[in-house]
């Protein structure tokens, strides 16, 4: 099926072009022509490629505004997160994730990387299909109209000294990496006929996967040429525990066991040594920063300039969904850097826009997404330049990255299918979230 979209302005070849006609066949861009008169479906504002949310735990959305009361740390926040995790069923997870992914679609996110570790029933009892929770996420993404990279997460222990899982954590565990791989194989088969899904792998962290099991997860991802993600160096305590257990940093441990590489994304990468950064660069390992979560949890500020320089990808994620706004994640990388370094303008808006789109899509394995060019997936996201936030800022990357918010996304096209029109998605995510989350906290 052929379609044509005319964009008042569009982000093409790293700059803003005017009067851009994008023609597609079966969800793939045939041509991008600049300086053309309006025809086909007209998109006002500045059209950017699809935003990629490279790090999500869908169920954490239920914590928003509930865990902002009182003080504490990442570790006290985690207790509240475990309480929610313990209440979810495949049915309630489908309903919650469908609404969360709809919130993402409305924010211009066309692909999400779901770091999925809530595999089993309470007490660790397997469902009739051990991938029932994963299949709920696949259905949720289809209903919301976004692509899903389901990063099936290996989670085996409660700490780097091999402490056994306990309480709500029992739902996360597969016993050992071989059994994790068997289940992940079955999930890949289940997702084979789902064009909106890629199945990748994840190591939860060096706390949750013992060193001798890391290579099994890495080899699984390598065998399928699949994305491999890992939480790494988010917390000072995590680094200290790793040093105590193994005598090296998480990054060094991951490198030693073959986890780092160009298909790998280290999520957070907040507390890195100079040697860690050298290891990341030497292996072309990607990084995913999640600034709104990192600020919400009081994690710290990672070394963005050193990592943005490449050669690895630099992607962004909304992680715990304290908010779902990739533009806020993008600007936060530069604004956090200003606070930390007391200097303005280290990272250009164009680089941040690329991180939020192209780098993120690549980190999730959608290799032909993230740019408006022939042969690319037809993901189009129109950003309003006439709202109270953006009016007067002009058709520039700076206006989109530093002034616009998710609320300024008016139209979203994913693989050539219109998912959001004039800020309207066919599903009422607000109502669904109120119902499901209200029930979970009752
Ligand atoms: Zn995470």
TrEMBL record:
A Pfam family reported for this protein in Swiss-Prot or TrEMBL: Amidohydro_1
Entry keyword annotation includes Hydrolase: yes
PANTHER family: AMIDOHYDROLASE-RELATED DOMAIN-CONTAINING PROTEIN (PTHR43794:SF11), AMINOHYDROLASE SSNA-RELATED (PTHR43794)
Assigned keywords, A-Z: Hydrolase
Name used for this protein in its record: 8-oxoguanine deaminase
Ranges where the Amidohydrolase-related domain occurs: 46-419
GO molecular function, one term: 8-oxoguanine deaminase activity
Record InterPro entries: Amidohydro-rel, HutF, Metal-dep_hydrolase_composite, Metal_Hydrolase, MTA/SAH_deaminase
Keyword tRNA-binding belongs to the record: no
Top-level taxon of the source organism: Bacteria
E.C. number: 3.5.4.32
């Amino acid at each position: 099926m052929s379609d044509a979209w005319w964009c008042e302005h569009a982000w093409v070849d790293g700059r803003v072009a005017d009067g851009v006609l994008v023609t597609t066949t079966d969800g793939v861009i045939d041509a991008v022509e600049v300086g053309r008169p309006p025809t086909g479906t007209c998109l006002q504002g500045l059209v950017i490629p699809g935003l990629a949310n490279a790090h999500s735990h869908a169920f954490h959305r239920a914590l928003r505004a509930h865990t902002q009361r009182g003080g504490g740390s990442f570790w006290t926040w985690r207790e509240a997160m475990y309480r929610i995790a313990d209440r979810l069923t495949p049915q309630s997870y489908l309903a919650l994730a469908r609404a969360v992914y709809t919130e993402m679609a409305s924010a211009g996110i066309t692909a999400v990387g779901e770091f999925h570790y809530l595999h089993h029933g309470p007490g660790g009892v397997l469902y009739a299909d051990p991938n029932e929770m994963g299949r709920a996420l696949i259905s949720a993404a289809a209903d919301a109209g976004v692509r899903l990279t389901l990063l099936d997460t290996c989670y085996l222990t409660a700490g780097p000294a091999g402490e056994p899982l306990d309480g709500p954590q029992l739902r996360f565990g597969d016993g050992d990496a071989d059994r994790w791989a068997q289940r992940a194989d079955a999930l890949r088969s289940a997702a084979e006929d789902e064009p909106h899904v890629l199945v990748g792998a994840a190591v939860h962290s060096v706390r949750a996967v013992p060193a001798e099991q890391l290579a099994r997860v890495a080899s699984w991802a390598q065998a399928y040429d699949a994305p491999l993600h890992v939480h790494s160096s988010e917390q000072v305590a995590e680094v200290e525990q790793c040093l105590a257990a193994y005598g090296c940093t998480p990054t060094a441990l991951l490198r030693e066991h073959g986890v780092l590489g160009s298909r790998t994304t280290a999520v957070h990468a907040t507390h890195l040594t100079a040697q860690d950064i050298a290891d990341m660069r030497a292996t072309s390992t990607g990084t995913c920063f999640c600034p709104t979560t990192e600020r919400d949890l009081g994690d710290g500020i990672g070394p963005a300039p050193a990592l943005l320089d490449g050669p690895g990808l630099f992607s962004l994620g909304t992680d715990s969904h304290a908010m779902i706004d990739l533009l806020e994640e993008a600007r936060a990388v530069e604004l956090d850097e200003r606070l930390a370094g007391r200097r303005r303008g280290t990272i250009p808006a164009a680089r941040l826009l690329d991180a939020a789109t192209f780098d993120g899509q690549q980190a999730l394995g959608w290799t032909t997404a993230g740019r408006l060019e022939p042969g690319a997936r037809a993901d189009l996201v129109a950003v309003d330049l006439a709202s109270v936030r953006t009016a007067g800022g002009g058709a520039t990357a700076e206006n989109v990255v530093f002034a616009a918010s998710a609320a300024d996304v008016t139209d979203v096209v994913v693989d050539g299918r219109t998912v959001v029109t004039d800020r309207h998605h066919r599903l009422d995510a607000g109502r669904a979230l109120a119902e499901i989350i209200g029930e979970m906290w009752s």
